[in-house]
Amino acid sequence: MFGGLSGSRLNVLDLDDFSKEEIEHILQSADGMNEVLSRDVRKTPTLRGKTILTLFFENSTRTRVSFEQAGKVLGADVINVSASASSVAKGESLLNTVRTLEAMNIDVLVMRHPHSGAPYFVASKIDAAVVNAGDGTHAHPTQSLLDLYTMRRHLGEIAGKKVAIIGDLHYSRVARSDVWGLRKMGAEVTVCGPPTLLPYGLRPGSEQAESAAFSDVTVVDRVEEALEGADVVMALRIQRERQDSGNLPDLREYSKLYGINANRLARANTGALLMHPGPMNEGIEISSEVAHGAQAVIEEQVSNGVAIRMAVLYMLCARSRGGE
Q1: Around Cβ 14, how many Cβ atoms within 10 Å?
Q2: Which CATH number is 141-301 given?
Q3: More confident residue, 211 or 122
Q4: What is the pLDDT, as a whole number, of residue 14?
Q5: CA–CA gap between residue 318 and residue 322 (Å, rounded)
Q6: Are the CB atoms for 14 and 141 separated by under 8 Å?
Q7: Which terminus of the chain, N or C, has fewer Cβ atoms within 10 Å?
Q8: DSSP H or E run through 94
Q9: 157 — phi, psi (to 5°)?
Q10: How far apart are CA 81 and CA 98, in angstroms?
Q11: Are 75 and 44 in contact (CB under 8 A)?
Q12: Within 13 Å, how many C-alpha atoms sit on residue 54's CB side?
């Protein structure tokens, strides 16, 4: 029912070390999870006796609640801890905090941290499985998986499809993970954004991509060119909390040059999907008209996130269940 996952993977930190087959397994498992979520009684004892702890050092609504719901639907005990309510606020180190929490016999630690690489550090120090729920500007693997799942449900095969990603690629952890996942699945990725918000290796005059994630994407200057013939249009949020002064002269200018509106979306293929990782800044990176239009699957991305995170938690907990 849940895709026959082997439970051999220890952590989910990003999609760079995932194979296409592993991604397929998770997407197939999410189909079974969605069947559970469609029932009148959305509950299964699959992970009864397991403990999942969420530790968020940044504010979050969608991701944290999604993991909490995923764990509870699967029958696990879910404990939510925020940094402001933990001993971190009293000066305790990250390592000592997670070791204290691990002493409570947790099975999975779901972690969001403002510093890139923090989940990798924690994963190397504890025995519990670690899920990266977003680390700095680096990665957000479960968001990428739910994006892939949403695309597959509408488009079928992802291989060969053109996906246009528009906006702040420099600060977006979602973009990096999405590019990894899309390339693994055989999609053609085109990116467009202000030169100051492109990864260093993609900026004019750069010799190579900042990381391998962006080494095989097409970069264009005009958003109209990026959207031409696209099967999926992904608008990225302008992350005001991550902007260094001077990266954008004016948000109105950004909307004028790069905002996704009806006229621009019309350049994509008929029936193209409009996606956004949320939360949206309507009127800046995306117009209200298209954000709530027929092509938008943004709310579906949120609901699919629960099924994907159920699949991820099941996969990680299965390792201690002998691969059952």
Answers
A1: 22
A2: 3.40.50.1370
A3: 122
A4: 97
A5: 6
A6: yes
A7: C
A8: helix 94-102
A9: -70, 130
A10: 11
A11: yes
A12: 26
Pairing of strands 129-135, 108-113: parallel
Q: Where in the chain do CATH 3.40.50.1370 domains reside? A: 20-139+305-321, 141-301
Question: Where do we find the tokens 């969001």?
Answer: 112
Say which amino acid occupies 143.
Q
CATH number of 20-139+305-321: 3.40.50.1370
What Å distances lie between residue 231 and 168, 252, 270, 272, CA to CA?
20, 27, 8, 5
The residues that bridge with 235 in the sheet, in sequence order, are 166
Cβ atoms of 297 and 27 within 8 Å: the answer is no
Instruction: Quote the mean pLDDT of the chain.
Output: 89
Q: Residue 71 and residue 64: Cα distance in Å, rounded? A: 11
Paired tokens of 246: 């001077």
**pLDDT tens sequence across 124-141:** 999 999 999 999 999 999
pTM: 0.92
Comparing CA positions, the residue from 180, 141, 170 lying closest to residue 63 is: 141
List the beta bridge partners of residue 264: none
Q: How far apart are CA 188 and CA 193, in angstroms?
A: 17
